[in-house]
Amino acid sequence: MARTMTRTTTTADEAPPHAPEDAGQPPSLFPPYRSTVDRSPRQPLIEIPQTLTERTGPAENLMGPARADLTTQHAGVPIGQRIVVSGRVLDEQRRPVASTVMEIWQANAAGRYIHVADQWNAPIDPNFTGAGLVVTDAEGRYQYTTIRPGAYPWGNHENAWRPAHIHLSLLGPAFATRLVTQMYFPDDPLIEIDPIAGAVPEPYRQRMVARFDIATTRASFALGYLFDVVLRGHAATPFEDRHE
Predict the structure, then answer these.
(1) 3-class secondary structure, 208
(2) Sequence-separated (6 or more) residues with CB below 8 Å from residue 100
């Protein structure tokens, strides 16, 4: 599953045109991640002014109801370690960003996606689709329950494996304000040898790694993790633009 990592803007009405690349953001061209060689821009980018329709929303009204528990979407219980992920969406001043739509998608506990293009030899879990959606509250907070995803092989290079990760797509006041990132798990040895994560230099890479949190952990039910998303500024979360 190829993913093109290109910088996107934050919100249509806040980000200045042609904003300089933040040191923590992945470049459009990162040769160790082979897909970027074919997909990165070869010519200077052309700014297309956004229309009023593209800048207005609210997007959450178009996304349907929240689907914050990915473990209860089917008749049975999915296989794997249950986890609860919570955090806040913040601006560059660490002020909360309310009404942010967060789409969630991920592989199952065996590292398999429910997608026709994913045909590697790992089981499909009939009780886990791997897709969810939450909306931040007035304090920018969100929380969802899911299964910790497994690692999986991909064709970037010989014996290449993606670390366990969850994709997060954030929508602001309209679809034109979409941002995409990946959340990784602490102490995963595959992060250090993964070209997608490696496109983000240290120490910024750690902004994509969740923190285990005993307060979020639910006794005899699920482990808890914290993951804040910062949209802009010196502490911004590294973002990417994804294409399957």
Answers:
(1) helix
(2) 89, 135, 136, 140, 142, 170, 171, 172
* CA distance linking residue 219 with residue 223, whole number of Å: 8
**Segments of 70-216 assigned E as strands:** 82-90, 101-106, 131-135, 141-147, 152-153, 161-162, 165-171, 179-184, 211-212
The whole-model pTM stands at 0.83
Is 210:184 a contact under the CB 8 Å cutoff?
A: yes
Give helix then strand counts, H and E, for the chain.
Answer: 3, 11
Does an H or E element contain 226, and which?
A: strand 223-226
CATH number at residue 186: 2.60.130.10
CA atoms 70, 72, 78, 81: torsion sign: positive
Asked, for residue 19, whether it belongs to a domain, the answer is no
pLDDT tens for 148-182 read: 999 999 999 999 999 999 999 998 766 667 889 99
**Domain annotation covers residue 74:** yes
Domain carrying residue 181: 35-39+51-230
Instruction: Answer for the pair 133, 63: CB distance below 8 angstroms, yes or no.
Output: yes
Catalytic residue annotation: 113, 152, 162, 165, 167
Does the residue 23 lie in any domain? no
